[in-house]
Amino acid sequence: MEVFSVIEWVVGESLEGSINIRPPRYFEDVTAAVSEFRDLLDDILTDTGTNISPSATRVEVLESEPNTRNEFLKYFQEITLDPNTANKNILLSKGNRMLRLTDHQQSYPDHPDRFTFLFQVLSRESLTGRSYWEVEWRGEGVCIAVSYRNIGKVEGFGFNDKSWSLYCDTSSYTFCHNRVKTPVPGPVSSRIGVFLDHRAGILSFYSVSETMTLLHRVQTTFTQPLYAGVRLYGSIYSLEFINLK
């Protein structure tokens, strides 16, 4: 800096024993340079403080979870199923909102996203915010799930760390994730509601009739977009994603 060069020069001359008396104008120039440097430093500190303050005081506020059916319906997400993921023994209908297990394979083209071993299918829609949907099922049993897109195509929902599932039959429920099975108490219903808050890491399953009963709630961290999934098992039956609009 110019200021320090001037000061160093003056001190250096003093150490050599030759002290020169500078005219008043010389010291006025030094004083002005020091004052300018001080003002510049004040500006830098002020700007730095201004930039840091908002981020240091920002508070992230998360929304509360819905409590009533009407509150859940505010987050209704229409779900349609992706034919490119459907096992060939699954027949899709009603605009790809309904599926049924058949004895005859459908003429779906080969696709790398298709489930080839289990009777499973994923949704077209990726889910990254708050979503709520309901399914109506009939038959011996069904698995209702959410999953990352890159799940293995011979893996069952809930039997890996990329999917979370609720297995429903005519008398009980079982939650499954990463091969860990958890019995779930609650009233058996042919209609199941699913609430997802991807950002907050919340996944909840509800038994839906005249009232909504919480069956199971998951608190975790989701690292990828999720997709609604269904697995059919047992004898002839069907499942439909209900249009709640």
UniProtKB/TrEMBL annotation:
One of its GO terms (cellular component) is cytoplasm. It holds the Pfam family SPRY. GO terms for molecular function: zinc ion binding. Gene3D superfamilies: 2.60.120.920. The keyword Metal-binding applies. It comes from the Eukaryota. Keywords: Metal-binding, Zinc, Zinc-finger. This is B30.2/SPRY domain-containing protein. It comes from Cyprinodon variegatus.
